[in-house]
Design goal:
The chain has 10 helices and no strands. With about 160 residues, the protein is mainly alpha-helical. The N and C termini lie far apart (about 60 Å).
Length: about 160
């Protein structure tokens, strides 16, 4: 039988990594941030067991850890506005269609990108996303709607350009 830490905390490490990478765009920094969060979770495992939403606590600590990285390195430009090499932002093992979608997602405003990734990639509920990002469920729905609409328009424009050529 798994312990609380193994079942509820350790099982989230991959999701935490993907969120960290979404914010910092650096594999090493994302790994370090997740490691720090897991260490803090281990130190607070008794308190986490009593929480209604330990996953929400983990995401908030992760976000703070990622922000701390930018403070320490004096990289104060908003997360998501830095320039990155394509190989950093899109895994080379993905099919080309997925790569195009992920490259497009980089152009979305941060909140829309976060909501879209948490919903469509991670499969979280509106309530979980609202909890993680500390916004209302209505804001989650609006940001997801806008991200989907922009993506749909982008894909339709690409398809129409393809027919003309």
């Amino acid at each position: 039988m798994k312990t609380f830490f193994e079942a509820q905390i350790w099982s989230m490490k991959d999701k935490l990594y993907r969120m960290a990478f979404l914010w910092v765009k650096d594999r090493d920094v994302a790994n370090d941030a997740v490691q720090e969060v897991l260490e803090k979770a281990w130190a607070n495992k008794e308190a986490l067991q009593k929480m209604d939403n330990p996953a929400g606590w983990l995401v908030r600590v992760l976000k703070n850890q990622c922000l701390q990285h930018f403070r320490q390195d004096k990289k104060w430009e908003p997360i998501g506005e830095r320039e990155f090499a394509e190989s950093e932002t899109v895994d080379t093992d993905f099919p080309e269609a997925y790569k195009r979608v992920f490259r497009f997602l980089e152009t979305l405003p941060d909140k829309q990108k976060e909501v879209f990734m948490l919903r469509e990639v991670e499969g979280l509920t509106y309530e979980e996303i609202a909890d993680y990002l500390e916004i209302s469920q209505d804001q989650v729905k609006v940001n997801l709607f806008r991200a989907r609409k922009t993506l749909r328009e982008h894909l339709l424009n690409k398809a129409n350009h393809g027919r003309k050529n």
